Amino acid sequence: MKEHQKRLQNKVENLENRSHRQNLRIVGIPEGCEGTDASAYVANMLEKLMGEGSFSSPLEVDRAHRMLARLPRANEPPRAMVVRMHRFLEKEQILHWAKQTRSYSKETAMSKEPGAADSTAEEPSNSTRSPKYTDGGYGWVILASCFVITGLSTSFVKSFGIFFRDIQEYFDELAFKVSWISSITVAVFHAGCLGNGFAWLPSVSLVTQYFRERRPLANAIASCGECVFTFIFTPFYQWLVDQMSWRQTMMIIAGIQLNLCVCGALMRPYQPQKKYLTFTPSSASTSRKDLSRTSPDRKKNLAHFFDLPLLKQPKFICMVFFGFFSAMGFFIPDMYLIPHAQNIGIEHFQAALLMSYWSAGDCIGRLSCGWLANFRLVKSIRLTAILITILSIALMLFPVAKSYTLLVIFSCICGFFFGTMLAIIVTVLTDVMGVEKLDNALGLIMFFRSIACLFGPPLAGLLVDTSGDYSSGFYVGGGGLFIAVCFLMLADYFLDHEPNFNQDTEKEMEKFISQCQPQEEAEKGKLGTDRTNGTESEVSE
Predict the structure, then answer these.
(1) Tens digit of each residue's pLDDT (9 = 90 or more) over 238-268
(2) Which of 130-139, 186-195, 211-220, 425-434 has the lowest mean pLDDT?
(3) Which among 211, 149, 160, 213 is positioned nearest to 183, based on CA atoms?
(4) Contact, 180 vs 109, CB < 8 A?
(5) Mind spelling out the 3-state secondary structure of 248-314?
(6) Cβ atoms of residues 66 and 79 within 8 Å
(7) Sheet containing 81-85: which strands, arranged edge to edge?
(8) Under DSSP, is residue 438 helix (H, G, I), strand (E, B) or coil?
(9) Where are the domains of the chain?
(10) Least buried of 71, 84, 323, 442, by fewest C-beta within 10 Å?
(11) Cβ distance 203 to 154 under 8 Å?
(12) Which residues, in sequence order, are bridge partners of residue 85?
């Protein structure tokens, strides 16, 4: 039995050492760029760097993972990435290309003992650091365009309360039916399939790509367009309604929306600065435990927008439910704020100013929270959970306000916490899913949010018709946000307890043998090696 165990161990170590001959260590890839499928990302990156047609067949990467070390800070270089190529000849071709581009470097020391710890994890020099996001330059133009797009796209939706009672009286319909106008508008916008959704989704994605160090602040500034435009346009729209009619006001709003075309013309795809990457042969001392932590999935998902495999991740499912229930708290209070004030006897123009007060607090909240989130004192997802909890309580207490002074105070408070939540919501999604998967994750979440936006306002309108009081809308909004917080906390739990791939030694050895044995036979066939292992080699001779 002891001889059998020793022979098995020698065989595993031999196979392990052979597999490392196909390993590369790549230095300079920014943290988080690989997303959830590092193998596919590395394969695409190498094909783009070396040019199409460089390989006789599609490049295949068996495994790719970061070196086991703590996450680097803002000014530190990213961790190296260990990559195991599917074919030995492709690994040699990549190293040859790296030598020609003068970006090849050898490790100063390499352990030859199988299973030894990696003693020379190489730090990249300044010339081989990853290409940083610009955090400026043309990014400021992108940020300004996103500011205007966000403002034009959302200010009308938030100001719809001005037209709510006029439309209700003109058509003599219930609040339930009038709510469908706003709910369909918001649902289509969130689905990104028509109208302003076409402009807003790409602009938010570009801001995330152009900014890294200042990403929370950039997202906060971009989202402030909603506050500034709502602050200005809400009283302006009310003035137009008083001077003309709600129909003529709609025509003027349609003309203002044409400025989205100007902002769209200023958008440019992000192109990172070109810098050489450093390729080094991975040491034979990389442990089996490091390799076992990597995902064997090498499938390339061709779907760019709807990345359905994301729905298999528990943390993403929680973010989907968070987006679904939080959508109720996003738009229902805005829709019923002005009608609620008018219903309790507030003059129309003063009622419209409540939305301006709300937007002022919203703007202050976004900027202050974006600035605070930049310090990374608290995890963004936990900070968001705290802020949404406070907002949900404030919304459910909003109907208590009966005087105009109390309405102004509650509007400022709710607007402030509403702004703090929206300032870092994209940052939270980026932290949970990574930059590489942000577009796909945001697209899916917006799709499910659109469903909530479609049925949330009519549900609140049905309660308003039943109770005869617009306060029901605030209860629905606050309750939806409270449920959303629960799913956000679950997402934080799954994020902190990602699947641990540590297994016991026996299972790990069996898994490694099953993965390496077919590759060993393929390598023998290609290179014509006659090397065999243990007792089996003696019998074959």
Answers:
(1) 999 989 889 999 999 999 999 999 998 998 8
(2) 130-139
(3) 160
(4) no
(5) HHHHHHHHHCCHHHHHHHCCCCCCCCCCCCEEEECCCCCCHHHHHCCCCCCCCCCCCCCCHHHHHCH
(6) yes
(7) 61-66, 81-85, 23-27, 278-281
(8) helix
(9) 139-272+311-496
(10) 71
(11) no
(12) 61
DSSP state of 213: T
Q: Confirm if 175 and 461 have CB atoms less than 8 A apart.
A: yes
Q: Of all helices (H) and strands (E), which one includes residue 186?
A: helix 175-191
Identity of the amino acid at 305: F
Other CB atoms within 10 A of residue 296 CB = 10
pLDDT band at residue 525 using 50, 70 and 90 as cut-offs:
low
Planar angle of CA 208, 212, 217, nearest 5 degrees: 75
Q: What is the pLDDT of the chain when averaged over all its residues?
A: 76
Query: For the chain, how many residues are written?
Result: 541
Structure tokens that stand for 401 in this block: 């306000």
What CA dihedral angle connects 49, 51, 53 and 54, to 10 degrees?
A: -50
CA separation for the pair 152, 229 (Å, rounded): 7
Name the nearest CA neighbour of 432 among 420, 445, 419: 445
Q: Which CATH superfamily is domain 139-272+311-496 in?
A: MFS general substrate transporter like domains (1.20.1250.20)
Which tokens go with 422?
């929206």
The model's confidence at residue 129, banded by pLDDT at 50, 70 and 90, is very low
Residue 7 burial by Cβ neighbours in a 10 Å radius (0-12, 13-18, 19+): middle
Say what the pLDDT of residue 428 is: 86
Q: Which of 249, 268, 280 is nearest to 159 (CA)?
A: 249
Q: Which amino acid is at 220?
A: A
pLDDT tens per residue, range 427-455: 788 888 877 777 778 778 878 888 888 88
pLDDT above 70 for 126 = no
pTM of the model: 0.57
Distance CA 287, CA 438 (A): 32
| Tokens, residue 522 | 């393929």
Question: H helices within 314-423, ranges in order?
Answer: 314-343, 348-373, 380-397, 404-423
